[in-house]
């Protein structure tokens, strides 16, 4: 069906997205658990939404310079691989599964974790490190990815993201 | 799918319900300037670099390039894309380039 109508300009919702905020709490350091937060943050920023990421507990690995390039994927305890669980415990299986997942991610044009963080920061995203995790692991700002804006307490993060929608991963 | 025919200046184009062009061949550089003006953007050489990349990439890639693809292949930093097309750069670029909204995640 074809109709003639007045010119429609897409509603980019510039005014509607102003004031919308998203807070993403990244608490896992496995390779497969790093991506959901990064992808959601990237998508939100592309939609003009103010986005804050809080890295806590094992999620700290994502912003720790010495570890961020080396996150791993393990089949152990993950039934969604649809492989016998015992296989995951064999020597070398985690390395192999990690290698395979990194290849799959690369093949669909998705960046590795450090480059993804760089893209998020370039898009206006904010990265925050958890104070308690830093203390627990004896890490300070010099150990963290340069674009992390600060090491802050959970209460500080809640304050910064007043009114935000929260995603916990 | 319902196609809507609208007039822009003295040309007639097909658009979807949101206003994105549906016919790749109906787009012209002159039209781009008018589409951009309607969303408050005045096109500069830098805008054109992104738009021309999107136009050239679409037929070979089969879908609208994402921000990351524009950034890596056209060599325009992501930060700059947000300056050129504020708010929702991927969608705004696609609109001005007469292409569908990008559907890629990254």
Mind explaining what this structure looks like?
The complex is a heterodimer of chains A (169) and B (106). Chain A has 169 residues and is an alpha/beta fold. Chain A is built from 6 helices and 6 strands. Chain A has a 5-stranded parallel beta sheet. In chain A, 31% of the residues are buried. With 106 residues, chain B is mainly alpha-helical. Chain B has 5 helices and 2 strands. In chain B, a hairpin with a 2-residue loop joins strand 1 and strand 2. Chain B is globular, with a radius of gyration of 13 Å. The model of chain B has no long low-confidence stretch (mean pLDDT 92). Chains A and B meet through strand 1, helix 2 and helix 4 of A and strand 1, helix 3, helix 4 and helix 5 of B. Strand 1 of chain A pairs parallel with strand 1 of chain B.
Question: Any descriptors?
Answer:
heterodimer; A: 169 residues; alpha/beta; 5-stranded parallel sheet; 6 helices; B: 106 residues; mainly alpha; two-stranded antiparallel ribbon; 47% helix; 10% strand
H/E element sequence of chain A: EHEHEHHEHEHE
Approximate shape of chain B:
globular
Show the largest interface: A-B, 29 and 34 residues
Which blocks of ≥5 consecutive residues of chain B have pLDDT under 50? none
With strands numbered from the N-terminus, the spatial order across the biggest sheet of chain B is: 1-2
Oligomer: heterodimer
Note the total helix count of chain A: 6
Number of strands of chain B: 2
Order the strands across the largest sheet of chain A as they lie in space. Answer: 5-4-3-2-6
What is the total tally of β strands of chain A? 6
In the predicted model, the low-confidence regions of chain A spanning at least 5 consecutive residues are none
Query: How far apart, in Å, are the first and last alpha carbons of chain B?
Result: 27 Å
Beta-strand percent range of chain A: 15-25%
Structural class of chain A: alpha/beta
The major beta sheet of chain A can be summarized as: 5 strands, parallel
Mean pLDDT of chain A: 93
| Beta-strand percent range of chain B | 5-15%
């Amino acid at each position: 069906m074809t109709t003639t109508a007045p010119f429609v300009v897409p509603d980019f919702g510039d005014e509607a997205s102003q004031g919308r905020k998203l807070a993403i709490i990244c608490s896992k350091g496995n390779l497969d658990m790093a991506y959901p937060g990064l992808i959601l943050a990237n998508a939100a920023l592309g939609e003009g939404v103010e986005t804050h990421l809080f890295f806590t507990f094992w999620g700290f690995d994502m912003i720790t310079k010495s570890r961020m390039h080396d996150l791993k994927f393990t089949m152990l305890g993950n039934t969604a691989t649809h492989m016998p669980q015992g296989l995951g415990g064999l020597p070398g299986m985690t390395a192999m599964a990690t290698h395979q997942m990194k290849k799959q991610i690369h093949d669909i044009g998705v960046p590795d974790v450090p480059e993804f963080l760089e893209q998020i920061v370039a898009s206006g995203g904010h990265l925050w490190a958890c104070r308690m995790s830093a203390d627990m692991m004896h890490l300070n700002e010099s150990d963290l990815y340069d674009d992390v804006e600060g090491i802050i307490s959970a209460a500080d993060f809640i304050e910064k993201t007043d009114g935000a929608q929260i995603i916990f991963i | 799918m319902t196609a809507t025919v609208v007039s822009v200046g003295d040309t007639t184009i097909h658009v979807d319900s949101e206003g994105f062009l549906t016919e790749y061949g109906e787009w012209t550089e002159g039209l781009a300037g008018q589409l951009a003006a309607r969303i408050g953007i005045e096109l500069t050489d830098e805008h054109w670099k992104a738009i021309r990349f999107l136009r050239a990439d679409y037929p070979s890639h089969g879908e609208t390039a994402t921000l990351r693809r524009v950034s890596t292949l056209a060599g325009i930093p992501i930060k700059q894309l947000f300056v050129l097309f504020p708010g929702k750069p991927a969608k705004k670029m696609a609109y001005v380039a007469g292409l569908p909204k990008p559907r890629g995640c990254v």
